[in-house]
Design a protein that fits this description.
The chain has 18 helices and 2 strands. With 362 residues, it is an all-alpha fold. It has a domain of 77 residues. The chain has a two-stranded antiparallel sheet. The longest helix has 16 residues. It is globular. It starts with 9 loop residues before the first helix and ends with a helix.
Amino acid sequence: MARKPKKLKQDASREAQTELLGEGPDTPGKSAGSTQKNPAPAAITEAHEVETEEPVADAGDIEEVPVEEVADSTEAEPDAAAEEAEPDVAAEEAQTADAVVGVEAPTEAAPVPAQDPESPSEPEVADMAASNQKAPEPDPSPVRFELVTEEGREVHVPPAGERLTRAKELVQGGRIAEAISLYREVLVENPANLKARNNLGVLYDETGQVDLALDQFEAAMQLEPENVEVLTNYGATLTAVAKYDAAEELLRRALRLSPESVSVRSTLGILHFRRGIYAQAELELRWVCEQDDTHGHAFYYRGEALNRLSRYDEARAVLERAIVLQPMNAKAYYSLGHLYDRAHLTEEAALMYEKSKELQRR
């Protein structure tokens, strides 16, 4: 049965609560870091912890206990602390409201210990820690980065347009090494630049640095897994190193995304040729040549596929178009010379062989 609350004078109760909590409701300017020693808050906290282990009484049975009695009874009778240290009704209602909305009840800040005048302050410690951090390595390969996502989509920093344009001009001028350096600079500042990664991978592939090319394409695919251009370039490089299964998986994915892409289907046709599936290669590459009569790679590989299918006349006509589109392709000249020989066109064959040797010496 609840005891009848003892009546206190209002002023005396307010002073006692202020002394007990370290900051009364009428003293908002007092620092939370006060060093005033009061054991009473610990007593109240302990009372709350004990109270949660017993059934909660009805609101009408809650007993209001004088603050002085709470402090005294905590020291004198520790076994009865939960019974005598009941919080007032207003405090418990506020705590209950906080629990409903998922907000923890505010607790009193711990006293701030006296600081050694020789030891650095917290801001100084933070500055010292920041100054000791190592700067990230400027090498963009291999890539290890996290993307900021928004509703499942990557949010990319806008590309460094001027430098990308300059890199493209360097490639067109044959200054590949400078273009590679420029793309790497862009990626040091922004590892999520998709265009720089894809283009750098293409340049690495063209210069025979296949492992670096694969690193860049892998990173680009992590940025945008459904990018047809990245999937196609990645598949082409995997084909060049005879990783045919992985290459076909990527190219089939690209084909589903863009079934009428000349680039995808030409790369897939070359993959079939490399795997020795010449009929399938010729079929894909014939479609490409019909769509784009300036696609040098498609004409060359289609001619080679026709040659292996013993369709020599067709092969000779296709390769004659290939050397026009790719005048520096030594293999195309050699294959065409062989076809001229088969057709008993000795002079034409000799010219093709000589041109092939000349290009190989360069």
